[in-house]
Design a protein that fits this description.
Elements (H helix, E strand, L loop, with lengths): L1 H34 L8 H11 L4 H11 L5 H11 L5 H10 L6
């Protein structure tokens, strides 16, 4: 009889561990969404554009650097990709998130 009760306790313990693991995973996911800090996979070009913006470079300087690296890209396309990858609504918000993620220095 003791063996049966021990096996029931083992099953309950395993179930508790699974439940706790699910709760931790859910809380982690919710916390990431709440903070809204993605883990972007940025290209060198996108990082360069972010650095240029954060350094205060003007549109013409950034656009000419983009054309040197990739003649088929434009400033607006790169910025659009950055905002999408960083899950931001404005360029300032994208730069803010990049600074928070240590992608660029303020």
């Amino acid at each position: 009889m003791k063996e049966v009760s021990d096996s029931i306790l083992d099953i309950e313990e395993i179930d508790k561990k699974k439940i706790i693991e699910k709760i931790i995973a859910t809380v982690s996911m919710v916390e990431c969404k709440r903070r809204n800090m993605p883990d972007p996979q940025l290209t060198e070009l996108e990082l360069g554009v972010l650095k240029g913006i954060s350094e205060g470079r003007n549109l013409d300087e950034i656009q000419s650097a983009i054309k040197l690296n990739n003649p088929n890209d434009s400033y607006h396309r790169v910025v659009h990709r950055l905002m999408k990858k960083l899950d931001s609504f404005t360029l300032a918000h994208a730069v803010y998130k990049a600074v928070k993620l240590d992608l660029v220095k303020a």
